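in:
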């Protein structure tokens, strides 16, 4: 959280100077740091309850299910990522169009 807070000053400077790409990177870094901090505070419990907290280890699917999920992710990525690259090349917008 300290890191996310310290990024406010360079983010403010980037916004004032109209450095759009730098501001985007700084905001993404801030969001990432905030999520990492939140997950670190919650670990290993996903849902806190007095009677029976749900932990990451208890919430995992059986090993065969995780293996099939991995295969599906690999196959889906092999299809989706080339299509995404093709779409980004086709519909590329130049910087002059944004202003």
């Amino acid at each position: 959280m300290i890191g996310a807070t310290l990024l406010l000053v360079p983010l403010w400077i980037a916004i004032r100077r109209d450095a759009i790409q730098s501001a985007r990177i700084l905001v993404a870094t801030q969001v990432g740091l905030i999520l990492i901090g939140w997950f670190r505070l919650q670990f290993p419990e996903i849902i806190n309850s007095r009677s029976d907290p749900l932990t990451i280890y208890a919430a995992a699917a059986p090993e065969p299910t995780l293996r099939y999920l991995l295969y599906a992710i690999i196959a889906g990525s092999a299809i989706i990522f080339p299509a995404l690259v093709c779409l980004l090349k086709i519909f590329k917008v130049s910087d002059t169009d944004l202003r």
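note: The first strand starts at residue 45 and ends at 47.
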